[in-house]
Request: fold
Amino acid sequence: MPKIDVRPSVANDLDRILAIEPHYTTQFTWQIELQKDEEGMFSVFFRQNRLPRSIRVEYPRNKARLMEEWSRCDGILVGIIDDEIVGYIVLSLQKVPQTSWVTDLVVHRRIRRQGVGGVLLLAAQDWSRSKGASRMTLEMQSKNYPAVQMARKFGFDFCGFQDLYYSNQDLALFFCRSI
Reply:
């Protein structure tokens, strides 16, 4: 794994961050199934489905929306290898219950699966603790199988979902853990 430096972003980083393509490919998706029993109780199940072929999944936020949301976030950390920004993580602090919320975690396509996302996630946990957070929540599209796998690898537990969450009407999954 290459040496990855992580630091808070500065204004001059914006163009380089936006140049990182956030789309991804996957062969899996999580499908939601809602069942109602005779007593009117609902059960929600998620099933991992293998797709017949890999699909390219576009990021659920366009660049204008990203910039708008970033103007309201509490922090953006960037991962750097040899003076090149290769990834970023966007964080917002929620006062109750002292939770840090990760809305975006993107790594340059050519170096995915080399540990950059994990280094950014660990740095974000340290940053969040330093700001008084005791929990961290990750949000991701239900199609983002690589992100689901990473969340599970780092000890995050599934904690909820919201249908029609993104502007493209995609389902969001939420994973959280104490930090």
